[in-house]
């Protein structure tokens, strides 16, 4: 759900204008969702933030390629959002909050820059549905594979081990896709959070495999 109009109508049963509204894409990565937000909300001011300088560089290139002019990007931690000195009508935070040791802390940071009656769109995953992922993560941690921030070597080790497992092994059946066994999938695995190192968890696999349920939610902050 990329446009403010739909979210606003669902909540308030009124049609909102996208003219001169401020939209934040928090944890924008390489700008795929930012591009969708800019296109779905003509006339708005869109700002994307991310911790990764490389991701921001790629996001700028993506938006420039698609001739989207009214979009800004900043290298910024979500917890440092007040530094922008801005408030937003609509905040998109896709595939980010569950990476916080305490997602409520990240959500509070978003709320601090949300306008009255503004809307936050975010998603979280089901811990029960992710049980197999957690078991796999624990196994890889036990052998020390993710003592450091995972890079190409660790990704290659995951690929080799998962490829060697018979298809009927539960952890492979429930958490793996054959496309990830290809050498060219290394960058895709990292950029799509196949390998993510955080203070709370070291996530080895895709945060949203086909079988795994997740929920999108909208949060409206009133005076």
Features:
8 strands, Rossmann fold, 2 domains, six-stranded mixed beta sheet, alpha/beta, 8 helices, elongated, 35% helix, 223 residues, single chain
Give a written overview of the molecule.
By secondary structure, this protein is α/β, with parallel strands linked by helices. The protein has two domains: 122 residues, 3-Layer(aba) Sandwich (Rossmann fold); 73 residues, no CATH class. 35% of the residues lie in helices and 20% in strands. A six-stranded mixed beta sheet has the order 3-2-1-4-5-8, with helices on one face. It has a two-stranded antiparallel ribbon with strand order 6-7.
CATH topology of the largest domain, anyone?
Rossmann fold
Count helical runs.
8
CATH homologous superfamily of the largest domain, by name? Answer: Vaccinia Virus protein VP39
Reading off the top of the CATH hierarchy, the class of the largest domain is best stated as Alpha Beta
Query: Stretches where pLDDT falls below 50 for ≥5 residues?
Result: 197-214
* Named CATH architecture of the largest domain: 3-Layer(aba) Sandwich
Total number of distinct structural domains: 2
| Computed Rg | 19 Å
Anisotropy-based shape: elongated
Report strand %: 15-25%
Mean pLDDT over the full residue set: 81
* Gap between N and C termini: 25 Å
Assembly level: single chain
Count of beta strands: 8
